[in-house]
Design brief:
By secondary structure, this protein is α/β, with parallel strands linked by helices. It is built from 12 helices and 15 strands. The chain is elongated.
C-alpha cells in the first residue's frame, strides 16, 4: 500500500509528538504514546479527541482519544506516535478500540519494536480495511520513544550524556570542588532533563568533589527526580554525602562494578529505560569509549575560561561526527547548547 502523506499529516503528527511531552518520563513501564483524532468539519480539519498514556502506563493514549471523540471518531483519522498494540495485556488491544470506533484512517509515526506488537498492529488494521500511513516523522518519533526502543531492541536503557564545559573546553579544575560554568538558563534546562529521565548516573569522584543532591529542583517538579546511581568500585562514597543522607529524593543505588554494559543491563532489569550521565570525565569517557552513549548534550559557556589545572572534557568523543549527528543548537544566555544523536 502506498504511503500517502500530506503536509496536513505532518502537522498533526508533529502536534501529537508535542502533546506527548506532557507525560514524558511518567508512563513507565509503558511508552509515552500520544494520539489525536482529527475530523473534517465544515471543510476544516479539527482535533476532536486527544489522548496520552496515563501516568504509570495506563490508560492507553488511543483509547482516551477515541473516548473523547465519541461518535465523531467514525470516519475520522487517528494520529498516533507509536504503532497501536494488538495484544491482550492488562487491557484489551488498542486495535480493537480503533476498529470499534469507525476510524477510517490511521497515521502512525513509527513502528513498535516490542515483540508483542512489532507490525501486528499495523497488519490487523490493514486486514480490517483501515487506511494506514506510516512512517510519518519516523526519526523524531524514534527519538521521542528512544527509551522504549532501546529497552526492547538492545536490552538496556537509552543513555544521555550531559556535560557543561568552559569556553576553552574544560569540565572543571583538578582537585577542586564544583565550578559554576554555565548560567541560570542552562541550569533550568538541565533540571528539565533530570525530570524526564528515569535515572541519573555519576561516579564517586563527582560525589566527593561536588556533593550534589542529583534531584530535580524545578518548583513543582521535585517529585520527578530520577533514580540516583553512583559508581563506586573503591567504596569511597562519604557517609554524609547528600545522595546518602538526603531523604527528599529517590534512594541511591551504588554499583561497585566497573563494566558499563553490566551496569546498564542491571538498570534495564529494574525497568529503567532512560539514564542521564552527569558524571565527570572518567565516567563519561568510559561510557563513550564503550559505545554506550546514545545522545550528548554539551552546554558550553561563552565567557568562562578555566586555565589553571583545567580538566579537559572529552569533546573529541562527544562531537565525533562519524558517531554523532548534531541535531539541535540553541542559546541559553551566554551559554550555547549543542545536542548530538548517535547515527544509525
Amino acid at each position: 500500500m502506498k504511503n500517502q502523506v500530506s503536509s496536513l499529516d505532518m502537522r498533526f503528527a508533529a502536534a501529537a509528538l508535542r502533546y506527548g511531552r506532557r507525560h514524558e518520563g511518567l508512563t513507565n513501564p509503558n511508552p509515552c504514546v500520544s494520539a489525536l483524532v482529527v475530523k473534517t468539519i465544515n471543510g476544516r480539519a479539527r482535533i476532536v479527541g486527544r489522548g496520552i498514556t496515563g501516568m504509570g502506563g495506563r490508560p492507553h493514549a488511543e483509547v482516551q482519544a477515541l473516548q473523547q471523540a465519541g461518535s465523531k471518531a467514525n470516519g475520522a483519522t487517528l494520529y498516533v506516535t507509536l504503532e497501536p498494540c494488538s495484544h491482550h495485556g492488562l487491557t484489551p488491544p488498542c486495535t480493537d478500540a480503533i476498529l470499534a470506533s469507525g476510524i477510517a484512517r490511521v497515521v502512525a509515526c513509527t513502528a513498535d519494536p516490542d515483540p508483542r506488537v512489532s507490525g501486528t498492529g499495523f497488519a490487523r488494521l490493514r486486514a480490517e480495511g483501515v487506511e494506514l500511513s506510516t512512517p510519518v516523522l519516523d526519526v523524531e518519533a524514534r527519538r521521542f520513544h528512544a527509551g522504549h526502543i532501546a529497552a526492547k531492541t538492545q536490552h538496556r536503557p537509552h543513555v544521555v550524556l550531559k556535560m557543561a564545559v568552559s569556553a576553552n573546553g574544560m569540565i572543571g579544575r583538578k582537585n577542586s570542588g564544583q565550578v559554576a560554568i554555565t548560567g541560570p538558563e542552562a541550569w533550568t534546562y538541565v533540571q528539565g532533563l533530570r525530570a524526564v529521565n528515569d535515572a541519573i548516573l555519576v561516579g564517586v569522584g563527582t560525589i566527593i568533589s561536588d556533593d550534589p543532591s542529583l534531584t530535580c529542583r524545578l518548583p513543582g517538579l521535585e517529585g520527578r527526580s530520577p533514580q540516583r546511581v553512583v559508581l563506586d568500585s573503591g567504596k569511597k562514597i562519604p557517609e554524609n554525602a547528600k545522595v546518602v543522607t538526603d531523604k527528599n529524593g529517590p534512594d541511591t543505588q551504588i554499583f561497585d562494578q566497573q563494566s558499563c554494559q553490566n551496569i546498564l543491563k542491571s538498570l534495564w532489569e529494574q525497568g529503567i529505560k532512560t539514564v542521564m550521565i552527569e558524571g565527570g570525565v572518567h565516567v563519561a569517557s568510559a561510557f563513550l569509549g564503550a559505545g554506550l552513549v546514545d545522545a550528548c548534550h554539551v552546554l558550553q559557556s561563552g565567557t568562562m575560561v578555566i586555565e589553571d589545572d583545567g580538566v579537559p572534557a572529552p569533546l573529541d568523543l562527544m562531537m565525533d561526527t562519524a558517531t554523532f549527528e548534531l541535531i539541535d543548537q540553541r542559546q541559553f544566555g551566554d551559554d550555547q547548547l549543542k545536542s548530538f544523536w548517535r547515527r544509525d
